[in-house]
């Protein structure tokens, strides 16, 4: 099934249902599908056919959404580009993707022009906003495009999105995601629109991230009005949630923190919210606990853990696991599970293995491997093919962790981040969780420091909560009381904030560079 059908099918049945909002522009299914077809014909005029790559370098918008579906409609491959990419990263993405058409927002035109001589595959440059010298203006591209566009015949196994990973440790990798993988995810998780109200979803995650891409597909297919923000900004998010009576929203941890820290949070009516999911990075325990206390009781929180390589969500920690009520024993269990990523979705298998790939027992720390019908086609290589790390249907995630006796999965950090002290493996996430349970700690990042005697020492970079005070000795003793002594931080540095990427993941490579001496 071509993913363009996520719009075309509901549009053929409920053309007058409002489905997309961006700023002052509001679109029904029928109007959105007409726009998708118009853009599809414009892309065909620009020479885009099956397999050709169409890249967008811009913040979120209604036309960004429509351009994805238009690219799928004509059989092209969509390349959503990280608008925070540095010049070398942007050149790498656009070149390795073999981009044929590039659509750019005004803010990014100077950078694109600097790289033009090195972007050898791009044939058409399109200016999405104002007219730009040497670029086709987007409105002009659409002027002569007819209103109906025939769907290109495609195979379900063909790539529809080439999505580049965040590149926190190296240059981004192009993850090849197919029509079938997105269809499997969407159809298994939502019901098709039936004309009845399905609420409203607020999209503030960037569309170059897997959470943004799956959000537009699930919302449009199920009939949930999609309210798109160009970028996340706490005041705009709160205003949109109130004005559009938003029921569903996805947030990364930094967004969640900025919302609950907003000085006028209590002034906004968020009573329409029923589902707030979060992911993209580890959620600091103090942040989610405060969010549970501050949001309306009607909100069901969901921790959705996944990867680009698996077409989004793998495991879920559901609303019931976020309720901090009941007996003291039940509260303690809920608090423990809040530090987990929940349990696998029905179409996902998870196992924890040692360095030789052998399955480990309950509670043992190893690398997390996953199996699902939604595994990527592979990483795009320079020859136009796919390189895949999948082994006999299992994807090594590079995430370390363990599974408890009830099937809840706990993360221990990236495989490259594991600390080995005197032959003992230490999971940074376990130490971080303990530190972040201290009443004075806002956030913590744990890394290994080289040591001649022990190989590595446990080090922690800590952000204290506003107005709170604590010293290294106090935090070390706190950790000593709650975990084995060899796991407690031997070195603690206090900072005002941790370096993070745009999705809120802590950049531990930057911390190592800063503190390795």
Task: Describe this protein's structure.
The chain has 517 residues and is α/β, with parallel strands linked by helices. It folds into 4 domains: 30-180, 3-Layer(aba) Sandwich (Rossmann fold), CATH 3.40.50; 189-340, 3-Layer(aba) Sandwich (Rossmann fold), CATH 3.40.50.980; 348-415, Luciferase, domain 3 (Roll); 418-517, ANL, C-terminal domain (GMP Synthetase, Chain A, domain 3, 2-Layer Sandwich). The chain is 29% helix and 26% strand. The protein contains 15 helices and 27 strands. A 9-stranded mixed sheet has the order 2-1-11-10-12-13-14-15-16, with helices on both faces. Strands 4-3-5-6-7 form a 5-stranded parallel sheet, sandwiched between helices. Helix 14 (472-482) links the parallel strand 26 and strand 27. Helix 2 (29-45) crosses helix 3, helix 7 (179-189) packs across helix 8 and helix 10 (253-260) packs across helix 11 (285-294). The longest helix has 17 residues, at 29-45. The radius of gyration is 23 Å and the shape is globular.
Topology, element by element:
Elements: H1 5-13, E1 18-22, E2 25-28, H2 29-45, E3 53-57, H3 62-73, E4 77-80, H4 87-96, E5 99-104, H5 109-115, E6 124-127, E7 136-137, H6 138-143, E8 159-164, E9 174-178, H7 179-189, E10 200-203, H8 210-222, E11 225-228, H9 234-243, E12 248-251, H10 253-260, E13 275-278, H11 285-294, E14 300-307, E15 312-317, H12 328-337, E16 343-344, E17 349-353, E18 366-371, E19 378-380, E20 386-387, E21 395-403, E22 409-414, E23 419-421, E24 424-426, H13 428-436, E25 441-451, E26 455-464, H14 472-482, E27 491-494, H15 508-515
Parallel strand pairs: 1-11, 3-4, 3-5, 5-6, 6-7, 10-11, 10-12, 12-13, 13-14, 26-27
Antiparallel strand pairs: 1-2, 8-9, 9-19, 14-15, 15-16, 17-18, 18-21, 19-20, 21-22, 23-24, 25-26
